[in-house]
Amino acid sequence: MTASPDVNGLVWEHFTAEQQAEEIRSVWPQADYHGPDTSKHRRIKSFVLRQGHLSKGQEKALHDFGPKYCIPYRDQLLDLDAAFGRSAPRVLEIGFGMGQATAQIAAGRSDTDFIGVEVHTPGVGSLLKLLGEGDIGNVRIVQHDAVDVLQQMIAPAGLDGVHVYFPDPWHKKRHNKRRLIQPAFVELLVSRLKSGGYIHLATDWEDYAIQMLEVLSGNADLLNTADGYAPRPDYRPLTKFENRGIKLGHGVWDLVFRKR
Ligand SMILES: C[S@@+](CC[C@H](N)C(=O)[O-])C[C@H]1O[C@@H](n2cnc3c(N)ncnc32)[C@H](O)[C@@H]1O
């Protein structure tokens, strides 16, 4: 990895994990980041925290816009009406990356509220910059593992939709177990959806697309809106990871299922 100077002229990649955690907490005290999970009985995670470079713009956005848009992770139900200051349809997005697609979707669907969940601090900074500068009001961010967020903060039947765009493919056989889209996780998603609510997934890895189709089709509470894969809905722009996949010659598969 090429070393890049951090906000204080130091080199981020030369920090130890604990120093990086401390630095993140110092610029963004509400960040739910405490360094790598070293506990013995940890659940297999769908992500590895990458300590990417935090740009000056992202750091400033964390500071300026974090208090308005970020909701700290808590082991308790989130009052969404209070968080958004209104009652509206609610869509939760898992793993928004740098957040360009999230900001674009939210700007185009102002009648809907979006809860973006991401673990990567530079991504949170990047989305905050887009939201703050674009004055987009219908997004809130929780920086934490989406599994915990769904289990602890979202009430059963609390959501109208879930977006998961280009989740980490974990394409090596021995890493497949880290994939997010598995039967137990989809059961959790379904439990948080209202009747009629939707799950929209997209991937550029064909074998993951096949797995997604099998897992969603195997859930008795879900109905496919298409015959197999779905056409990309108008509201979803191309995402950063999708563009990268397309450049590598990958195909793209969308899936849209509804809860009965
Ligand atoms: C391959 S990237 C895709 C980003 C974006 N959706 C796009 O298409 O450009 C997957 C993202 O999901 C995030 N992620 C993976 N597992 C997660 C989890 N359990 N909770 C929250 N975020 C997660 C990663 O940090 C990463 O930013």
TrEMBL record:
The keyword S-adenosyl-L-methionine applies. Its EC number is 2.1.1.33. S-adenosyl-L-methionine binds at E93, E118, D145, D168. It catalyses: guanosine(46) in tRNA + S-adenosyl-L-methionine = N(7)-methylguanosine(46) in tRNA + S-adenosyl-L-homocysteine. Residues 174-179 are annotated as: Interaction with RNA. One of its GO terms (molecular function) is tRNA (guanine(46)-N7)-methyltransferase activity. InterPro entries: SAM-dependent_MTases_sf, tRNA_(Gua-N-7)_MeTrfase_Trmb, tRNA_methyltr_TrmB_bact. Substrate binds at K172, D204, T239, K240, F241, E242. Pathway: tRNA modification; N(7)-methylguanine-tRNA biosynthesis. SUPFAM superfamilies: S-adenosyl-L-methionine-dependent methyltransferases. One of its GO terms (cellular component) is tRNA methyltransferase complex. Keywords: Methyltransferase, S-adenosyl-L-methionine, Transferase, tRNA processing. Catalyzes the formation of N(7)-methylguanine at position 46 (m7G46) in tRNA. HAMAP family: tRNA_methyltr_TrmB. Belongs to the class I-like SAM-binding methyltransferase superfamily. TrmB family. This is tRNA (guanine-N(7)-)-methyltransferase. It comes from Chitinilyticum piscinae.
